[in-house]
Amino acid sequence: MSDPTVPFLPFALPEIGEEEIAEVVDALRSGWVTTGPKTRQFEGDFAFFLGDDTRGQHLHCVAVNSATAGLHLALEALGIGPGDEVITTTHTFTATAEVVRYLGADVVLVDIDPATLNIDPAAVEAAITPRTRAIMPVHYAGLAADMPAILAIARRHGLKVVEDAAHALPTTSAGQWVGTLDSDATVFSFYANKTITTGEGGMLVTRNAALAQRAKTMRLHGMNRDAFDRFTAKVPSWYYEVVAPGFKYNLTDIAAALGIHQLRRAQTFQQQRVVLADAYDQALAGLPLLLPPRAPAGEQHAWHLYVVRLTDDAGIERDRFIERLFDAGIGCSVHYIPLHLHPYWRERYALRPEQFPHSQHAYERMVSLPLYTRMGVGDVARVAAAVRAAIP
C-alpha cells in the first residue's frame, strides 16, 4: 500500500497560467463561447507557429475537438472508404486505428522499430497490397518517425500519408517541423496530458486547400457555412445548406482561448521537458533499464513521454515494478497496450503477438515515468530514487 504521508507525484498535470485564464474569461464575457473568433485566431496562430514551407505554400489549420476527430476528417476528405486498407502501427492508442473503421475501411497493423518504437518503414512496405490507400505513421513519445523513408514509400506506391502527431508538438523531421512535411495531412492533439492543452482538442494541418475545406464542412454537420460566418456577417445571412452528412467535431472558443496562450509557450515547454529528460538520463544511468532514444543530431524531440524499458537482468516484472512505484507515491503509465492485444482488433484481424515481436517485447517491459512542465529536477530525483528502490 502507498504511504498516505508521502505526497503523490502524478503521472501528468497541465500547466495553466494567468494568461490562459484571462483569455478564457474574455471568451466567456464576450458571449461567443462556441466556435468563433478565438478559434479562428488559434488556427491562424498555429499556421504562423509552423510557418510556410520553402515553397511558400499556405498551411491550412482546422481546429477540432480532438485529434481523433482530426484523423477521421483527414481520412474522410481523402476518400478512404469500404474496400480500402490503411497501414498503421500496432503500438499506438486505439484512436489511430478506429477512425479507419469509422469509414468502413480496414486497418493493417505493422510492427515497430525496436530502437525508436516508431513504425518500421520496411514493415510498412511489406504490408502494401492492391487495396492499400494510405499510411498513418505515429510519432511515438514525441520522436519523429522515419518520415523520409515513409514518404518515399508513399510516392513509389501512390499512397496518401496522414501523420498522427498527437505526441509531436514541437518535433522536427529532416530539419522541418512535423506539420510541414510532404504528407497529405498532419493531426495534433491538445488533450490534457499533451505538450500543450486545450483540455480536449486537436488541429488538422494540410497544404491541400480542398482537403481543408472538406474538413471544415464536415466538422460541423456538413453545413457549407458555420454559425460564426452566418451570425457575424454585415448583411444578415441565416441561410445555409447541408452538403454532406457531417459530424460534430468543432472546437469551442473556450478551448481555443487556452490554446492561444499554450501555443505561445510551446517552445518554452519543450525546453523544460528537455531539461527533465536530461535529468532522468543522468539519474537513471547504470540501472538495468533501456532509456528512451534521443532525436538524431540537429532534430527536435517534443518529449511528450519518457518511456523506460526494464532489461532482462532487472530482476522484476513490469507490473510489479509499477506497483512498487505507486507504493512510493509515483504515478506512471504504460504507452501502449498494443492494438494486437485488444479483443476488438485481435479478433477482427486474427492477430497474434508473434506477428509483432518488437512491439510485444517492448510492451512487456515498458513504463512511462512522470514528465510534465510543472515538475522540477527534484521531482526527477525522487522518481529516480523510487526506481532504484524498486529494482531488486
Set out the fold topology.
Layout (H helix, E strand, L loop, with lengths): L17 H13 L6 H14 L9 E5 L2 H11 L7 E5 L4 H9 L3 E5 L10 H7 L4 E5 L10 H11 L2 E6 L6 E2 L2 E2 L7 E5 L12 E5 L2 H10 L8 H6 L20 H12 L1 H19 L4 E2 L15 E5 L7 H10 L15 H7 L7 H7 L2 E4 L7 H14 L2
Parallel strand pairs: 2-3, 2-4, 4-5, 5-8
Antiparallel strand pairs: 1-9, 6-7, 8-9, 10-11, 11-12
Helix pairs in contact: 1-9, 2-9, 3-4, 3-7, 10-14
Please tell me about this protein's structure.
- Helix content is 38%, strand content 13%.
- It has helices spanning 18-30, 37-50, 67-77, 94-102, 121-127, 147-157, 209-218, 227-232, 253-264, 266-284, 318-327, 343-349, 357-363, 377-390; strands spanning 60-64, 85-89, 106-110, 132-136, 160-165, 172-173, 176-177, 185-189, 202-206, 289-290, 306-310, 366-369.
- The radius of gyration is 21 Å and the shape is globular.
- The relative contact order is 0.17.
- The mean pLDDT is 95.
Give short descriptive properties of this protein:
392 residues, alpha/beta, Aspartate Aminotransferase, domain 2, Aspartate Aminotransferase, domain 1, 2 domains, seven-stranded mixed beta sheet, three-stranded antiparallel beta sheet, 14 helices, 12 strands, 38% helix
Q: What proportion of the residues is helical, as a percent range?
A: 25-40%
Overall average residue pLDDT: 95
Q: From the coordinates shown, what is the CATH architecture of the largest domain?
A: 3-Layer(aba) Sandwich
Low-confidence stretches: none
* Domain unit count: 2
SS-based structural class? Answer: alpha/beta
Span between N and C termini? 18 Å
Q: How many whole angstroms does the radius of gyration measure?
A: 21 Å
